[in-house]
Each structure stands twice: as structure tokens, then as C-alpha cells.
Amino acid sequence: MIKKNLLIYLFATLTLGGFFTSCSDDKDEPVVCPVEQTIFTDINGLALNYCGAPVLGKQIEFIPDASNPTKASVKISGSKFAIDGMPFELDGSGVIPGEETTTLNLDLNINGDLATFEGVDENAQRTISYKGSIHKSSLNLDLDVTYPKNILAGKMFDLKPYIPSFGSDPKSTPVICKWDSDYKFKVYPFGPTFSIEANIQWILGMTLMAAPIPGSSQGIYPPLLGSIKNIAFLPNGNVVAKYNEKWNDEKSPWKDSPLNAATYVMENDSTLRLFINPAQIAAASPKQASLKASRGNSVPQILMELLDDVNVLLKSGIPFHVSVKENGETSVYLDETLLLPILKKVKPLFEDEAFVNGLIEQIKASTPDDYKKQVDGVLAPTLKAMPQIIDTTKSIQLGLNMAPVTAAEK
């Protein structure tokens, strides 16, 4: 009997012991998100790629889901950008053109202190495919973006050549500059008067014919447009220009501007918003020449007054009108809605004699000798009359005329 009871006791002990051991083995460690709520930036662990190229000047806030460790979201936006020597910072635009903030909801695959994720986010304007990883000290995110087809996507344009005419309007010009002001110029005391638009057309004519770019049929004066050969609007929202750093050196190679320095979105077939990334541009061109014109004491205050305008344009984009002809020739331009309020704010600069004279001297220093007299005779009076011109301005258009590049020309 004792032996029988002993066997029952041993069997029960083994059975219960196995049960409790089994329960202990089945109890996994709780899943925990390895990263707390954190803001990542260029200097704080962020490695961000947009359509295959690094993008700077942005920030991403990682927000874990308090109720589910495998869920989280990221808020992608622009970060502050400081300019050397300036007592303020500028706001950057979002990563996705047209979106100041983009939120992605993530499903996390957690492996120790590292989490990975990938997915697709789409709306009527674009589709984002994303993939990345996050650690408490770093966030890596790759974004590929596609947009619905628009009138510019995938097209490349040359600037139209300058072809003068005997009238005030050239037959062809790369620069759109229409300026309706009541102010009239009189070059000679008893001669005819000229409008500001006629004066500007004459100035543009001289500069556009002054210095042809090596390897290009365009005649573009570098201080006016730089050595730009063509402009491409990529399907992923990037705008890329082919340019030459040394416009007067025939051996200097043509280069493409960096990706993610300028992006765009089409609001409709007649409106484009251009987004400039100052951090990306500064990284590509760390040594920029500064304006050496003598400046009066009013300049810092004027710059501060313009800061709000600049921030709006950086965050919301610069609104360009778009006009496309049947032959594919395309014009993009700003109008008085944007330009005139800015001109009125900078008017005090042109009331500062020291600033205007310094600006004229700087322009003359970079002007071929054959054209220095024209600077004194036409450009200088125009700059000095800018306060009166601005006060009497009714409308302005400023932009570019472009012709499509064929597949063979690319």
C-alpha cells in the first residue's frame, strides 16, 4: 500500500512539475519598443534619402504607440537653417514637395535594440514607398515618391535663345521681364521718354548678348542667370539644372545641380510651387561670394522684415505661373502678387545712396569693358530711380522662357 501511494505521489509530482515548467517556458519576454519619442536631425542621427539621394535640412520625430510596442509613427518636416553672420534662422520645407509635414504610420519589426519597417503611404497627390530602421541613437529612412503625370514631369528644357528685334520686345528671349510702371526715363534732356520695361529690355539685350557660354548657343551673362544650359523636371519632384561653374573656361565641364536642392509640385496645369532647400545648396556650394556693396544701417532691419516672407516661401514654396504652348515651349514666371510687396519692403535699400553706388560699382567690376558705359548710362539711372518705379508699378512678370529638349538632344 505504501509503495502504491509512493508511486501515485511521484507521478503527481512529476506531472505537476512538468505542467509548471511548461507554463514557465511558454511565457515569452514582453515586446518593448527600443526607442523612446525622439527628434532626429542631420546632427542627431538622421540619415534620410529621397528618391535615391541624401537630403539635408530636415527632421523626423519618432513617436512610439503607447498601447502597442510594434506600432509607431514618424512626422517628417523641415528643420531650422542658420545663415553665417545672420542673427536669425530660416524654416525649411517638408521633404515631400507641397507637404510641410508628412506623417507615416509604421509597423515595427523589433529585434533587440533595433527596429525595422517598410510600407506604402498614398493619397491623391502622391505615393510614398518607404523603408528604414531605427535605433535609439539613429534613424535611417529611404523614401521613393511617385506623382500623377503632369505637364512638366519627365521633361527637359533649354532656355530660349536671345534674338533681338528693332522694337522694344525681342523676337526671342530666355528672360521674361514685363514691368508696367508710370515712371518714364529721359536719357537726353530733349529726347523721347522711355518706360521702365523698355529700359529693362535694353539692359537685358546688352547682357544677354554680351557673353556667350562656351559649348552653348545661349548668350547669357553670368551675373544675370549663371551658366545654365538646361533645366529638367523629374517625375519624382526634383528640379535639376545643368550648369557650368567657370562660364568663361571652354574646358570646364557641365555639371548637374544636386538632387533635393530644388523640388516642385504642380498644383494644377497653370501653377507650380518651387521648394528651395538652403541646407542642400549650402552643402554643395560651401564657398559663396558675398555682396560687397556698401550698405547703410537700414539693411539689417529690412532683412528682418523680409524674414517672414522668406520663411513662407521656403515652407509653402514659391508660386510660379506656368504657360505651355502647343509646340511645347514653356514659360514659368512670378507676378506682382508676390513681387510687388517684396519690392515695397526693399525700397529703402534703393533710397540708400551708399548701397546703390556700391551695387553699381560691383556690377561694373564684373562687366566687360565694352559695356561699362552702358552700366553708367542706363543701369545706374534705373537703380537710382527704383523708389519711384516701385511706387508707380501696376504689374510685373519675371521668369524664364524655355524650349523642350528632344530625346536626341539629351
Architecture overview:
The protein has helices at 2-26, 196-210, 222-225, 278-284, 299-316, 336-350, 353-365, 372-384, 386-391, and strands spanning 38-41, 46-50, 53-54, 58-64, 71-78, 80-82, 89-91, 101-107, 109-111, 114-122, 127-135, 138-146, 155-159, 175-181, 184-186, 193-195, 228-233, 239-243, 255-256, 262-268, 271-276, 318-324, 330-335, 393-404. With 410 residues, it is of the alpha+beta class. Strands 13, 14, 17, 18, 19, 20, 21, 22, 23 and 24 form a 10-stranded antiparallel β-sheet that branches. α2 packs antiparallel against α8, α5 (299-316) packs antiparallel against α6 (336-350) and α7 (353-365) packs antiparallel against α8. The longest helix is centred in the first third of the chain and has 25 residues, at 2-26. The N and C termini lie far apart (101 Å). Mean pLDDT is 81; it is low at 6-25, 211-224 and 288-295.
Please give a quick description of this structure:
With about 400 residues, the chain is of the alpha+beta class.
Please mark out the parts with pLDDT under 50 across 5 or more consecutive residues, or reply none. Answer: 6-25, 211-224, 288-295
| Average pLDDT, all residues | 81
Radius of gyration: 30 Å
Largest sheet: 10 strands, antiparallel
Assign an overall shape: elongated
Overall structural class, as computed from helix and strand content, comes to alpha+beta
How much of the residues is beta strand, in percent? 25-35%
Extended strand count: 24
**Helix proportion range:** 25-40%
State the end-to-end distance.
Answer: 101 Å
> Number of helix segments?
9
